[in-house]
Amino acid sequence: MPSLLCSNMNHRIFLCAAAIVVLTIVSIATTATATATASTATTTTTTTTLYPIKIKTKKGKRSSQNIKVLQQTNNELQTGDQDIWSNYIEFKKKHDSRFQFNIGDDITDISDDESSTTTTKVFINSFSFQVNIKGPSRSKQKWIFRIRNYKRNKWETLFVNKKNGGNNWEWYTMEHSKTFDEDDNVSFMEKYTNKKNNNVLIRLKSNNRKEVLDIDYMSLILTTSTTTIENDIDTNNPSQSPSTVTENENNDNSSLLLSVGDTWTYDIGGSFSNQPYKTKVIMIDLFDTTKEKITSLKEDYGHIVCCYFSAGTYEEWRDDFNTFPSSILGKPLDEWVGERWLDITNEKTINIMTDRIQVAIDKGCDAIEPDNVDGYTNNPGFDFNKQDQINYLIKLSNIAKQQFNNKLLIGLKNAANLINTLESYFDFAIVEECYKYNECCMYEQFIQNNKPIFAIEYNVNQNDMIGLCNEFQSIDNVNNDNNHNFSLLFGNYAVSELTFCSDLLTRRRTRKTRHLANITAAVVDDDDDDDDNNDNTNRLLLLGDGSWGNC
Fold first, then answer.
1. How does pLDDT run across 299-358, given as a tens digit for each residue?
2. What is the CATH number of the domain that holds 182?
3. For residues 274 and 258, is the Cβ–Cβ distance under 8 A?
4. What is the pTM of this model?
5. Would you say 369 and 415 are in contact if contact means Cβ atoms under 8 Å apart?
6. Is residue 544 part of a domain?
7. 3-state secondary structure 436-459
């Protein structure tokens, strides 16, 4: 671990060493058992420095230096107003990046079966996150460092750049440390690691595009204690014999019913995970949601959980990113850094998606939402057509339904032009902005076959929402011939804000807002109107040129 500073000044790092330091403290303890037998315990304490292995920039830009420049030694760290371009990474514009650390398989909170001859316990006693940065004052631009709390499914702030910006763009170091006790209810592993791959995520975010931030060092320092206990077991005592518990993994969802009109929450970004959901169906991210969270949503609150993943693109920040061979990676997606189209005709793509579906089953998802399944309408970098896309989606459906014995429901995401062929293979539809693009009518085949359609419209003027709700799903108990029984939500493109039609009705009744009442009246038939003239042409168009469509 690099030695950054040897005095305690202004949050500077005062860990003095020239390279990675491993401290080992061994203690021998003897503990009496109830039967007066003895167990010998050996404890080893180790300090390990980890560096980021991958950066995913979701917003803004960064310079092209290799991530390994963040693994600086003491002699290479920049100070003062130094500006050695090759030794740092520059982050710019209004920014959002994720740094991935991997703590490996050896550093885990584990406890072997205490009835065996040996019990091994590993516990992370503390962590310290450290960076060396140069940038603006906080008043000009905030740069916020956060860590992902998987237990609470939210981001926790570690620190923000200094008020004075390191005295006129000079390098300075920052550190955040936290200790854990084995008596704590939640350990480091439970809070901050992705249980599937032992990854830790650090997030860097700015509040505007005015300035840039330079980083030439970043590390996560873990102190762990490993205790090995040699147990004395009385083999004549059956109560001390090792036992095996077999978990019932039957997760057959073939009888799970979704109904037309079911309420839903679209939370693939995790923005609402810290509060109780109030809808029947919850759609969440497969990789960012733990098995424990999914189990709680189902067993404690009775939700149906649908898990999102991309089936048509490679995303460099996903847990399984290293399983994608370069031969199946196509052109980048416009405006989505680190995401590329996949060759859906390649069997390797199918194998990876099969593994993802298995992850969904292992975590207990009730349903899956494969996204980006309209690559043939874009420019993916591969020569596949509409029929290839249909074949690929049928394969995904068969994997979920046949290969895994109906353990998962599967939804069709957008792909309006494929519905006539594919509707019978899917259990529900997820539709984005069908009204804006005049294509809602193309999805009605699902409703006709008693399958729900979960629809979301983005960035809708609030004054227009009531009218759209009555068009999609009659929330006012109005005898509206234009009602189509879609389950409608409104949100922003980041899906960090959602508005439910049921909430709009409650607000309207409570506040008796005249303006919203007028909008509703514009959608509902007037008693004096000629019923023969009550067609789609007389319906209020609430999204500019948007409409239900004319199929």
1. 988 999 999 999 999 999 999 999 999 999 999 998 788 999 999 999 999 999 999 999
2. 2.60.120.260
3. no
4. 0.52
5. no
6. no
7. CCCCHHHHHHHHHCCCCEEEEEEC
